[in-house]
Amino acid sequence: MRSRSYTLAIALAAGAVAQVSGCVGAAAAPATPAAVVVARYAFDAGAGTIADASGRGHTLTVIAGHGGAVRAITHGTGRALAFPAKCRVKAKRRCPHVVLQAPPAADLNPGTRPIAYGASVRLARSQTTKGQNVLQKGYSATTSQYKLQVDGTAGRPSCVLVDDRKPTIRLVRSSVSVADGAWHAVECRRAGTAFTIVVDGVLRGVLAVPAALSVRNGGPLSVGGKGASANNDQFQGALDNVWVRIG
Known about the structure:
Layout: E1 20-21, E2 24-25, E3 36-41, E4 61-65, E5 71-75, E6 78-82, E7 97-102, E8 115-122, E9 131-137, E10 145-151, E11 156-162, E12 169-173, E13 183-191, E14 194-199, E15 202-208, E16 221-223, E17 238-246
Antiparallel strand pairs: 1-2, 3-17, 4-7, 5-6, 6-17, 7-16, 8-13, 8-17, 9-10, 9-16, 10-11, 11-12, 13-14, 14-15
């Protein structure tokens, strides 16, 4: 469902005022590149193949194992997707798992440009685990990455960036939990050296990152987990309004 908090309005300055000194006019400053929503998923069509509402064609496909599945649930006037509940089996390879993935695409890579990404999440305290992935592109161990996850039994969301040349994990964690069974809008923002996490419109964490940090990789865009393997950091609540904006 497209919530009001996730209606993205971007005001752009279209030009610059030329200053004149004598008979010589100064050239207009170059316009700042527009911020563009490069992927958006509202899940109102249900749990089949999920179209990209941004119009850029990053369709999500359901990849599952051991009986894992997503199911459509009501959220406001629309629908959201619920992921498998917490697995109590000791052998994790036998647990249901599912991830939504869009194929790799260059326009999902921000490089050094500003990026913001987020989702509406609902997670009960009883469903928290060591780590659950909400949204990611790339893998921290082998490539660069941007990621939103919910960490530990406390259920505090965090945002991750990993540079494509220096694979240090840069993590900013929220000071508040979202694991209370209610819906929360969580957003990660990177602009220059500022990397922040926002929960329900309130700034909840700030981290300084290198200005040259670049995220550019050939990995898929994944929602609800990191991949199709059993050890996929399965998200175990419900998601809606997943989006990525670059610029």
